[in-house]
Design a protein that fits this description.
Length: about 110
């Protein structure tokens, strides 16, 4: 019995996203943590920042190059100094390649 090579690579069968996208966080409202999912059609430098209702940056969740595909990040409701933030409305902003998208979320205590 001789193995026959078909020239098909299993990795080539992986379906990559067609567009950049960021999903609504879940759970929403949340306490104490929430999950944010996003998809990249190509390898990209990605930043995800959290802002308060006054537009002030609370923390940066992500700032790195990620491969094409689906990704997950979690926010534990803390700021850059690792202090818990107040109950309220927050915004998360994904910036990847030429795409910027912002979504709203609610932290309840």
């Amino acid at each position: 019995n001789t193995a026959v090579s078909t020239g098909v690579d299993d990795a080539a069968n992986t379906v990559l996203p067609v567009d950049f996208s960021i999903s609504q966080n879940y759970p929403n409202p949340f306490n104490p943590t929430t999950t944010i999912e996003f998809s990249l059609p190509t390898r990209s430098n990605v930043t995800i920042d959290i802002y308060n209702i006054m537009g002030q940056k609370v923390t940066r969740l992500l700032n790195e190059i990620r491969p094409a595909g689906d990704h997950i990040v979690r926010w534990d409701g803390t700021d850059d100094a690792n202090h818990r933030v107040a109950t309220g409305v927050y915004f998360y902003r994904l910036n990847a390649a030429d795409m910027v998208e912002t979504r709203k979320m609610l932290l309840l205590k």
